[in-house]
Amino acid sequence: DVKVTQSSRYLVKRTGEKVFLECVQDMDHENMFWYRQDPGLGLRLIYFSYDVKMKEKGDIPEGYSVSREKKERFSLILESASTNQTSMYLCASSADRGTDTQYFGPGTRLTVL
Amino acid sequence: AQSVTQPDIHITVSEGASLELRCNYSYGATPYLFWYVQSPGQGLQLLLKYFSGDTLVQGIKGFEAEFKRSQSSFNLRKPSVHWSDAAEYFCAVGAENYGQNFVFGPGTRLSVLP
């Protein structure tokens, strides 16, 4: 069975802290994605990666960075967390970035105080 | 680039009633269309998808969707709703053009009355 896991379900951080969100997939997928989900806005793409060490900005990359050192792992980094980054963060992976099913992790609900 | 609208923010139906959730897309070529469901506090799970062929697509949990090119729609239906169907539903449009990603609609929250 397909599996995407995220390191934390709930996270509480303080303004200015550096935050790491980890995502691991076991499907050998080339493509991995980080989305942010806010009520009424649906899912907005932050960053995605189409290969190890390769990344591209999505629609809302400001304030975020990513790292993909291994194929199965994709990390989202908030260099200096701010209160407006309080949100649900969803990781996904797929075999093809534009046409194939994306498989999602359970999400991390991040609160920045 | 493609875009997706889901006109209904929140829908309430009684258990056993039929359901239709609307999705309209904008895309110049043949779209790749998906419906996902998100239960409270969970990630998204694929219900069904359409790439080509038969325009009526069957999915999991008794859901189906119909692709209507003339109306740029991909509405999700279920003949009889169960209380466990209460969730948020997202329509998404993919694209085969290089460099384009999925676009998700804003979602429709479904409440089910006993």
Overview of the molecule:
The complex is a heterodimer of chains A (113) and B (114). Chain A has 113 residues and is mostly beta strands. Chain A is built from no helices and 11 strands. Chain A has strands at 4-6, 10-13, 19-25, 31-38, 42-51, 54-57, 65-70, 73-78, 87-94, 103-104, 108-112. In chain A, the strands form 2 sheets. In chain A, strands 2, 4, 5, 6, 9, 10 and 11 form a 7-stranded mixed beta sheet that branches. In chain A, strands 1-3-8-7 form a 4-stranded antiparallel beta sheet, with no helix packed on it. Chain A is globular, with a radius of gyration of 13 Å. The relative contact order of chain A is 0.33. With 114 residues, chain B is mainly beta. In chain B, 0% of the residues lie in helices and 51% in strands. Chain B has no helices and 12 strands. The N and C termini of chain B lie far apart (41 Å). The model of chain B has no long low-confidence stretch (mean pLDDT 91). Chain A binds chain B through residues 4, 9, 33, 35, 40-43, 45, 48, 58, 90, 92, 97-107, 109, and chain B through 9, 32, 34, 36, 41-46, 49, 51, 90, 94-98, 100-102, 104-107.
Summarize this entry quickly.
The complex is a heterodimer of chains A (113) and B (114). Chain A is mainly β and 113 residues long.
Secondary-structure blueprint of this entry?
The complex is a heterodimer of chains A (113) and B (114).
Chain A: E1 4-6, E2 10-13, E3 19-25, E4 31-38, E5 42-51, E6 54-57, E7 65-70, E8 73-78, E9 87-94, E10 103-104, E11 108-112
Parallel strand pairs in A: 2-11
Antiparallel strand pairs in A: 1-3, 3-8, 4-5, 4-9, 5-6, 7-8, 9-10, 9-11
Chain B: E1 3-5, E2 10-14, E3 19-21, E4 24-26, E5 32-38, E6 44-50, E7 56-58, E8 64-68, E9 73-78, E10 87-94, E11 103-104, E12 108-113
Parallel strand pairs in B: 2-12
Antiparallel strand pairs in B: 1-4, 3-9, 5-6, 5-10, 7-8, 8-9, 10-11, 10-12
